[in-house]
Amino acid sequence: MPLKTQVIVNPESNKGRTRRRWAKIKEALSAFLKEFKYEFTEKPAQAIDISRAAIREGSELIVGVGGDGTINEIANGFFDGRTIINPNTVMGIVPSGTGCDFMRSLHIPSNLKKAMQVITQAPSPFIDVGRASFQTHAGSDEERYFLNVADFGFGGEVLERMNQNRAKRKAASYLKSTLATFFHYKNKRIKLKVDGEEIPQGEYLIGAISNGRIFGKGMKIAPNARLDDEHFDIILVKGMKVWEFLRNVWKIYSGTHLSHPKISFIRGKKIEALPEDPDEKILIEIDGEQVGKLPATFEIVPRSISVKGYV
Fold first, then answer.
1. Residue range 206-219, pLDDT digits in tens
2. What is the CATH number of the domain that holds 221?
3. Of the candidates 78, 77, 75, which has an alpha carbon nearest to the alpha carbon of residue 102?
4. With contact defined as beta carbons under 8 Å apart, do 146 and 130 qualify?
5. Are 157 and 108 within one domain?
6. Residue of 53, 93, 97, 47 whose CA lies nearest to 74
């Protein structure tokens, strides 16, 4: 008997290409799933509400069509506060975004037919989820779940630059924005605790709390991370000079950066981060979205969501 299925589509993902190729995607969904309901998102965070309502109404399979941001919203809809609504509901993914970094940790191919084969034939392992508690830009407290990577410092400022370019209707790739941001970036002095133990203070370029392996449109920030080991891989990068950064940035794409003397690798379940100067604004990003600032706490929620794929 086919699963009761809800498909959630972000038509603006992949720079609007999802909308243009929807007929082809729908045809593939019909061939593999037979029966399903679908709904397009029209505004930010709407996928959270659609996902949550569908699960409460008995949907057994929630399929996201979009990029990392869309999949993040759908995952947040699996929760009501800190409670999973139905642990038997499964998530499926049709990659249709500009980066689709999280999908790579699940070994979901970009090819439409092969992605559908994953949804219908692959196992449904339970994976870990991260929970971030942070400050919004308005100063209020907020919680949000993430599947892939959260980071503080440099990554948040890269996304802020990209968002500004979009507002000005200027095209900018993640790599170009990364390089442009670096020349204006000031390293951050941050107080850190991992599982209750203080980390020596220092000036940091970035701190990445990784559940998945890849972020930033293909950077293998945590090459050995696993989605089901009940730990984060925490990558801390201390401040670098311009020449150091330019000489080593390619290593993050190849995943060979962990041996660098200014990069620390720690495994942990709970990370607390706050600015040394309470008035300094240090941005954070979650699954490719710039959501707020430090202080923040990041906690692992072990094996909480069932997802179609291979961990």
1. 999 999 999 988 99
2. 2.60.200.40
3. 75
4. yes
5. no
6. 47
For strand 263-268 and strand 270-275, is the pairing parallel, antiparallel, or unpaired?
unpaired
Nearest to 308 by CA among 112, 65, 120: 120
Alpha-carbon dihedral sign for residues 90, 94, 98, 100: positive
Instruction: Give strand pairing partners of 284.
Output: 152, 292
* Structural domain of 267: 130-303
Token output for 203: 């000036």
Cβ atoms of 102 and 119 within 8 Å: the answer is: no
Q: Are residues 95 and 139 in the same domain?
A: no
Residue type, 128: D
Instruction: List the structure tokens of 267.
Output: 């495994």
Per-residue pLDDT of 267-305, as tens digits, reads 999 999 999 999 999 999 999 999 999 999 999 999 999
Please give the single-letter amino acid code of residue 36: F
Q: Which two tokens stand for residue 15?
A: 């720079």
DSSP per-residue codes, 277-288: STT---EEEETT
302: which 2 tokens? 């072990």
- 310 domain-assigned: no
Tokens representing residue 5 in the block: 């299925």
In angstroms, the CA 251 to CA 224 distance is 14
In a domain, 311, yes or no: no
Number of domains in the chain: 2
Structure tokens at 32: 């593999």
Q: Do 118 and 139 have their domain in common?
A: no
Grade residue 155 by pLDDT with cuts at 50, 70 and 90: confident
Cβ–Cβ < 8 Å for 275, 282: yes
pTM beyond 0.85, yes or no: yes
* CA atoms in the 13 A half-sphere facing the CB of 208: 27
Q: What angle do CA 188, 193, 199 make, to 5 degrees?
A: 70
